[in-house]
Amino acid sequence: MASTHISTGYAALERAKRSIERLIWPDEAKIDTQTETFFIFRPFPKGLSAQNRDDWVALQVRTNAPFINCSHYCFVSTLGAHIWYATNTLNGLPETAAVNSQKDGECYIKGQTQCYRTKWQKGVMTECTRLDTLPENATAVHSDKTLHNAWGLQHKLDVLMRKPTFWTSTVGVGFVCALLWATVGHITITIQSANTESARSTLENTVGELLDKQASLRQYQQQVTELQNWKGAQGFFPDAYGLIATSLNEYGNWNARRITWQDKTLTLEVQKPNLDITTLVTQLENTAGIQSISIRPHNEADTWVLEATFI
């Protein structure tokens, strides 16, 4: 599954590279269908570094030439150097380099005037023999005239990408683009901030008087509400004492021995024989204006300490 995803990603990357290449270099290479060529393949030796690859390929082209003053076409794949030699000048891509990649094994190629028996490995041609005619019942492939999928086309973009200066330039261009983007972004944010501040100032000046009036209205409404609530508030001693006394009067005569009033809390010593404490507490708890009520016995007989906190 992982290898499938990798292969799919690699194929998509290659298609993108070819599309970019056609945009930069729209003129496609030509196919030489007339010139006879001699093909050799030299695999990369083990341990060959990428820095020495170009020198090694140039050495192979020079030392393996079968003719004096011959022309050549060289394609460098991931496996090695694929070289076509010709006694005459090559006027384009050799037609065996213009076919699509084939499956591993033997394959016949039918050119415009020549026939070939080839062998393939990992999508590249490793052997090529010119034939006078094709064997009977042999299935042959033909060159791709569009060269979109030609296996042996040395793509200009791939050559350019192998040069260190390409990546240096790419990093430089990327840095310049990033710097430009950051600069434009900073300018844009600055302009937007200035526009926002200007709009805010304009809005404050426009609605400032209205906001002041609204604040004054809210303050007036709050004062009116406080005045209305004040009428029913048990915020002072006479009203508070009157609520307690009204409830105690329902139980007959009683004596107030000691009275304390502080912070809306009334403490009253009540002397009353046979006082129904439970009923009195329930009654006072249900009385509006009283926040809490408690009654405890005094040291003296028939005497109680009543403590009520008012809202």
Description:
The chain has 311 residues and is of the alpha+beta class. The protein folds into three domains: 23-162, no CATH class; 164-232; 237-310, Threonyl-tRNA Synthetase, Chain A, domain 2, CATH 3.30.980.10. It is built from six helices and 13 strands. It has a four-stranded mixed β-sheet with strand order 8-7-6-9, with no helix packed on it. β3 and β4 form a beta hairpin. The longest helix has 69 residues, at 164-232. The two termini are 76 Å apart. The relative contact order is 0.07. The model has no long low-confidence stretch (mean pLDDT 84).
Keywords, separated by commas or semicolons:
42% helix; 3 domains; 311 residues; Threonyl-tRNA Synthetase, Chain A, domain 2; alpha+beta; 4-stranded antiparallel beta sheet; single chain; 4-stranded mixed beta sheet
How would you briefly describe this protein structure?
The protein has six helices and 13 strands.
Summarize the topology.
Elements: H1 2-24, E1 31-32, E2 38-43, H2 53-63, E3 71-76, E4 80-86, E5 93-94, E6 105-110, E7 115-121, E8 124-131, E9 140-141, H3 156-161, H4 164-232, H5 237-249, E10 255-262, E11 265-271, H6 277-285, E12 290-297, E13 303-310
Parallel strand pairs: 1-5, 6-9
Antiparallel strand pairs: 2-4, 3-4, 6-7, 7-8, 10-11, 11-13, 12-13
